[in-house]
Specification:
heterodimer; A: mainly alpha; 18 helices; 3% strand; globular; B: Penicillin-binding protein 2a (Domain 2); 2 domains; five-stranded antiparallel β-sheet; elongated
Chain lengths: 426, 644
């Protein structure tokens, strides 16, 4: 009986410890980023760090709730959870509240809730549910379209609410689909698309055409046996050229000026030093400040609460999207590398666990968790360090905010619960 | 394979992030320095720089406020053209200047403040101060500049100027735009005079607003005011010396033998210290610096290193007595020179013969001193030993090495020893006859005026001296003990009297008898030093330098002096007259030998100095005529103003 119990509650403590480390270290940095001079009380509810402590406290209530529910519950109710999430997103158009131009919040008294943070795990559950259905075959176009629709609906709703950052997160599911049998050609197309877009923006249409043509010609001569007809190659070439033009047009006319500038800065497209300077001042202010803060941390950092740029609040949104700059300044290379490693360990651990699941539902869901965390981690830290264009999304477990913290906690702990149940699967 | 896509991507991204972090924080990162942190505002309070008084309590150097416009290039925000024009107009610079200055500051450091426009006038400051808020990245730093209460003593007082980058690298106390003592006592007493600036560290926010003291102000320091100093200079004597040196080049150093205090330290040509204050400083400084002919920045009293000529004979007399190779009554014959093996090694002028020590000194007989010198060297079997012994005696008078005092510049002079000639001629391949020039202060011996003045002080003291120094008193502090401990020479006290009598007779019936001053017993020694210049690649002899060394009164001397006048010809002609006048001025406070004064003030050497540069052949020494200038009246007027 005892053995039975032990088995039943065999949670993966490595994941839980990694989670606790991230949340704990995250709190320390929120404290640094949001304090005003002196820290009088850690429970000062008028300060962000006080609120975050309450959010963290409530997180444990949520965790216990999630872990005490039957594992089967999540699979069984995944469609309903998904539906609720979609409805809450739709509801925003009626009851929502504008914050910084994005209509992604419900206001309840002084509290606000951001449903898009919860839509992620709901979508992950729905995707897992659909793919794990015995009838589903990811190689068929029909299932591909349907499963794409599952992620497309919340993504579109979020995009309509003017929260482009959160929309991009849904691209994470590509990794899940690929793992579950999506044809390789999608991967090739996806990578080519990115490459073509970057090429055409950075080097212009002509060079893009030449490069594409050369690559296709080489391919044509290498694959002598299984090669397609020359017309198909020509078609691909023209599609590529058309796409390159499209990207250029979209970049020049489809994007808002600030989005355009961000990409321009990222790809270093602007050559006129004067305009570049203006652009940097206007658009890359956060980035300049955050790079400066991170650089100034040096090897060991300035120490807890000692960051001069953090204290002076030089980096805007430093307690939310730019929290990693605080880590960089106060904890230096050692501290920030540790955070990167914690995230890598967590994601790798989840992937390892996902692969060891007996039920496909758990595996797919696990993959979804890993992919979502990965995309957040990559985009957020990459943006703060100037590796990718600015996209405003939070760093999981680190960034200030209840909705985000709870969203990620639920996402992760549903998987912990599913994983703990794998022994009972048959 | 499909399982590996996300896994490898995650690991690659992780590695890329760590590489980027390494690039930002370790490779491209920098040693954290709070002074480079633009999040922390550094507010400096510059303390009052210490005042400088002369030995009689007369204020020589005080302060005046000055305002620098500073810039931190990183924080500068682009201005629209109208704003820029207004700003440039306020600063009285052009748009091009603005760009150039900003670029230069950026090159130095984008994070650190650089002076943008230094030393605004008071009215410019008043107008600018109102509008300064508008110009982000610029601020006004108040400093204190010098205000000279006198027009003399530029070489003594020195000046202050902006620190350069090499100083900042060596001494992190200084930041760009700070002022530092550049010459004279400003340089040697820099740390005492400047005090310590106070710093307030203030945490800024991103709107450049101060949000409170950094670390509760625990790192802040209060300014410590600089200490006032009193220097040993007698400003009246100094002014008089400078007046006498007008239209001549040379140096005068006067020392109080009983203390080693420097009473006057004159160099000619000199300049008014006030020209090195304010916005014109750099322009005026370059003018002085690039005047490579008259070299006004070259302090001849301290740096002019020449063969001392005849004054060095008294040194040989002292060494001869100490070594027991001669006594004061021994006589030598002089047949208008010194002969060795039938060849005349050195000439001499007309005087009685045979010569004893007293007459040797009074008449400056070359033959007498060569005999004495050869006896000293040949006392030992190896001339090297003799030479070393001789050199040690001479060095005990502070010759042949740096005096190690508190002046900003100096030269060691040269006293050759046995090794020196072993190197020059080869071991044991030389003897006393090779080096007889040293007997009469020519040859390899070299000394600066201050060393000669110190030698005179040591003789006047009968065997000891205090290191000549310029500091008399530091507010709330004592002066270094090395200046208050006597240094003894290697000559016994009893040997000084005959030599001093000889020097006294220089005035009584010797080479300076025309320079006597009623009521003062002066002991002196004339000197004439041959000198050469390279003109068109040819070594050409110029008119001799005029040298005079003296102390007075004979017993318990109050002043020891060395005067050196470039190309002044024989010793009593220029230097001797000036020494007598300086001594009378110091001891009596007024001049009775107005004939001497008149002569000095109306005779110029400017034409003499112009000759070698004229490109024409020219005559020297006895074949020259002196240039008489007719501005004695003006000189007297100047003198009157000096008195007031």
């Amino acid at each position: 009986m005892l053995r039975e119990n032990q088995r039943r509650f065999k949670f993966d403590w490595i994941t839980i410890i990694l989670f606790l480390l991230l949340v704990g270290f995250g709190y320390i940095n929120i404290l640094s980023a949001s304090h005003d001079g002196e820290v009088t009380s850690y429970f000062n509810m008028s300060e962000l760090y006080g609120k975050q402590l309450v959010f963290i406290g409530l997180t444990f209530v949520i965790i216990i709730l999630i872990l005490s529910l039957e594992a089967k519950f999540y699979e069984r109710f995944s469609s309903i959870i998904y539906l609720v999430a979609i409805l809450s997103l739709i509801g925003l158009f009626i009851f929502g509240k504008d914050v910084n131009g994005a209509r992604s919040w419900y206001g309840i008294g002084s509290m606000t809730i951001q449903p898009s943070e919860f839509a992620k795990f709901a979508t992950a559950l729905a995707v897992a549910k659909y793919i794990s259905d015995l009838q589903t075959n990811m190689k068929t176009l029909k299932d591909q379209i349907r499963v794409a629709a599952i992620i497309f609906i919340p993504a579109l709703l979020i995009l309509l609410q003017n929260d482009a950052g959160s929309t991009i997160v849904y691209l994470a599911f590509f990794f899940v689909f690929y793992r579950e049998g999506l044809q390789q050609v999608y991967l090739v197309v996806a990578l080519s698309t990115i490459l073509l877009a970057v090429l055409s923006l950075k080097f212009g249409i002509l060079i893009t055409c030449v490069v594409t043509a050369v690559v296709l010609t080489i391919r044509y001569f290498i694959r002598k046996k299984k090669r397609a007809s020359i017309f198909q190659y020509v078609l691909v070439l023209f599609t590529a050229i058309g796409f390159a033009y499209g990207v250029k047009l979209f970049y020049e006319h489809g994007l808002k000026i600030h989005q355009q500038n961000r990409i321009s800065l990222w790809l270093r497209l602007e050559k006129d030093p004067l305009k570049l300077e203006q652009m940097r001042k206007a658009e890359a202010y956060n980035l300049i400040q955050s790079e400066e803060a991170i650089s100034s941390g040096g090897l060991t950092g300035k120490g807890f609460l000692e960051g001069t740029r953090t204290t002076g609040k030089f980096v805007p949104e430093q307690e939310t999207d730019y929290i990693f700059s605080t880590v960089g300044e106060e904890w230096g290379f050692i501290g920030s590398s540790a955070v990167v490693l914690l995230f890598v360990f967590l994601i790798v651990r989840i992937l390892y666990l996902a692969e060891s699941q007996k039920s496909q539902f758990s595996r797919v869901y696990g993959y979804g968790v890993a992919s979502i965390l990965f995309v957040h981690f990559t985009i957020n830290i990459g943006m703060v360090m100037g590796l990718i264009p600015t996209v405003g999304i939070p760093l999981p477990f680190f960034s200030y905010g209840g909705s985000g913290l709870w969203g990620f906690t639920i996402l992760l702990f549903i998987f912990v619960k599913l994983d703990s149940n794998k022994i009972n699967e048959w | 394979m499909r399982k590996l896509l996300l896994l490898t991507t995650v690991i690659l991204v992780g590695l890329a992030f760590i590489a980027r972090l390494f690039y930002l924080q370790v490779y491209g990162g920098y040693e954290y320095d709070i002074f480079e942190d633009t999040a922390i505002n550094k507010e400096y309070t510059y303390p009052k720089r210490g005042y400088v008084y002369d030995r009689n309590g007369k204020l020589l150097v005080a302060n005046q406020p000055s305002y620098d416009v500073m810039v931190i290039p990183r924080e500068v925000e682009p201005m629209d053209s109208l704003e820029l024009i207004e700003f440039c107009n306020l600063l009285k610079i052009t748009k091009e200047d603005y760009d150039k200055k900003l670029e230069r500051a950026k090159n130095y450091s984008p994070r650190l403040p650089s002076p943008f426009v230094p030393q605004l006038s008071k009215s410019d400051y008043a107008v600018l101060q109102e509008k300064m808020r508008k110009y982000v990245g610029f601020y006004i730093q108040k400093r204190s500049l010098r205000s000279y209460q006198t027009t003399i003593g530029a070489n003594v007082l020195g000046d202050i100027g902006e620190v350069n980058r090499s100083i900042i690298e060596k001494q992190p106390y200084y930041k760009l735009g700070d002022l530092i003592g550049k010459q004279g006592v400003e340089q040697s007493y820099e740390e005492i005079l400047r005090g310590t600036k106070g710093i307030k560290f203030i945490q800024k926010d991103r709107f450049n607003k101060n949000i409170g003291p950094f670390k509760e102000g625990t790192l802040d320091t209060l300014p410590v005011p600089g200490k006032d100093i009193t220097i040993t200079i007698d400003s009246e004597l100094q002014a008089y010396g400078e007046l006498l040196m007008k239209h001549k080049r040379g140096g005068i150093v006067a020392i109080e033998p009983s203390s080693g205090e420097i009473l006057a330290m004159v160099t000619g040509p000199s300049y008014n210290p006030n020209i090195l204050v304010g916005r014109n400083r750099s322009e005026n400084y370059s003018k002085l610096h690039y005047d490579t002919i008259a070299k006004p920045l070259f302090d001849r009293g301290l740096l002019a290193q020449y063969p001392p000529g005849s004054p060095f004979k008294v040194m040989n007399a002292l060494i001869g007595l100490q070594e027991g190779v001669v006594d004061e009554h021994d006589t030598f014959t002089c047949r208008m020179g010194y002969y060795y093996g039938g060849r005349r090694l050195t000439g001499c002028h007309h005087h009685r013969s045979p010569v004893d020590m007293n007459m040797g000194i009074a008449q400056s007989c070359n033959a007498y001193f060569i005999n004495v010198y050869r006896r000293i060297i040949d006392k030992y079997d190896d001339p090297g030993d003799g030479m070393n012994k001789w050199a040690n005696h001479a060095k005990s008078f502070g010759l042949g090495d740096f005096l190690n005092n508190d002046l900003s510049v100096g030269r060691p002079g040269r006293i050759p020893d046995g090794d020196y000639y072993d190197r020059a001629y080869g071991d044991n391949r030389w003897g006393s006859t090779y080096i007889v020039s040293n007997a009469i202060g020519q040859g390899e011996v070299e000394a600066t005026p201050i060393q000669l003045a110190n030698m005179a002080a040591a003789i006047g003291n009968r065997g000891y001296y205090y290191t000549p120094h310029i500091i008399k008193n530091i507010e709330g502090d004592t002066i270094p003990s090395k200046f208050t401990t006597p240094k003894y020479t290697t000559i016994d006290r009893k040997h000084f009297e005959p030599v001093i009598e000889g020097m006294f007779d220089v005035y009584n019936d010797g080479t300076a008898k025309a320079l006597k001053v009623e009521g003062i017993e002066i002991c002196g020694k004339t000197g004439t030093a041959e000198n050469f210049a390279i003109i068109d690649g040819k070594k050409t002899q110029l008119t001799d330098h005029s040298i005079f060394v003296a102390f007075a009164p004979k017993d318990n001397p109050k002043i020891a002096i060395a005067v050196f006048v470039e190309n002044g010809y024989w010793g009593s002609r220029f230097a001797g007259r000036m020494a007598s006048l300086m001594i009378e001025k110091y001891i009596k406070g007024h001049i009775t030998r107005t004939d001497l004064e008149n002569w000095i003030l109306t005779h110029s050497l400017e034409e003499e100095y112009a000759k070698p540069l004229s490109g024409e052949p020219f005559k020297i020494n006895g074949e020259t005529t002196l240039q008489v200038i007719d501005n004695y009246a003006i000189k007297l007027e100047e003198k009157e103003t000096l008195k007031q």
